[in-house]
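Onboarding guide, step 5: your first structure request.
Type a short instruction followed by the sequence, for example:

Predict the 3D structure of this protein.
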Amino acid sequence: MYKFPKNLYTDVRIEDVNYSEITYRNGELLQNLKRSYKGAFIRVFDGRRWYYSSTTDVDNIQKEIDNLAIMARKNENIMDNPIVSKFEVNRGEFIHFRENDILNINQEEKLDLLKSFFPIIEEREEVKRKNFRQQL
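The system replies with structure tokens like these:
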């Protein structure tokens, strides 16, 4: 796992990111993109200020932690800090949209869903130029 710097509060959050970006203009498909990657948000607190970093190079999170720790001032009483003392310690996996996971919907289904809105858009006279872009 990670070696957290002594006398500093360190927070690491790793996220799996999956999204689709589909763009239609006037009924014509312009873009059909699907992307997946991992990213990490790292922060270190010394009782005075926060030091932040983010990366998609999740194999080098320790390097990011170490670089932030160099900038911070060590604080023997960091765990007694009024801010830090209110934090919970959480470890594990949290998937908010597990039952509606975008990974369970193929691109064809997404395209069909978006196309189903075309008749509604066509009914609206005030929609002169139809630009339909959806990030899922």
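Each response can be followed by summary notes, for example: The chain has one domain: 9-135.
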